[in-house]
Amino acid sequence: MKARPDMRVPCVILNRGAGEPLHRQIVRQIAAAVADGTLGAEAHLPSSRSLAKILRVSRNTVVTAYDELAANGLIRAMRGSGVRVNGTAPLSGMPLAGMRGLIEAAHFPANVLRIEDSDANPIYIRY
Predict the structure, then answer these.
(1) CATH number of the domain at 22-90, please?
(2) How many C-beta atoms surround the C-beta of residue 61 within 10 A?
(3) pLDDT tens digits, 45-93
(4) Arithmetic mean of pLDDT, 24-28
(5) Could you give the angle at which helices 22-35 and 59-71 cross, rounded to 10 degrees?
(6) What pLDDT, on a 0 to 100 scale, did the predictor assign at position 78?
(7) Which of 6, 9, 73, 97 has its CA 20 to 30 A from that of 42?
(8) Would you call 22 helix, strand, or coil by DSSP?
(9) Which backbone phi and psi does 126 adopt, to 5 degrees?
């Protein structure tokens, strides 16, 4: 890996014995670094080959993680330019579990209507 003064290597600690896949651990930790400002907007990240070598994982693992981060709008990879951080994640890229906690913290919805279908199965309408 060529030394680049503007390259930021994210602090990623992998727990190989955890039930969470390695690529998800990488995604979670890089996303957290972007969210807390450790990795600022436009920061250069290592190539997939370089990060795989640093973390001692398969390049496919890093490619999968980078693809997921790009799909969530956190990073962008351009051939010849490397991988860069976009900045903070767009709200639409937030996982559903994160959105649910955000919505519940805002005390929304205020009301829940419980009705039953013809088979007596409950249906909840939140408004």
Answers:
(1) 1.10.10.10
(2) 20
(3) 999 999 999 999 999 999 999 998 988 888 998 877 789 998 655 545 5
(4) 93
(5) 50
(6) 80
(7) 97
(8) helix
(9) -105, 130
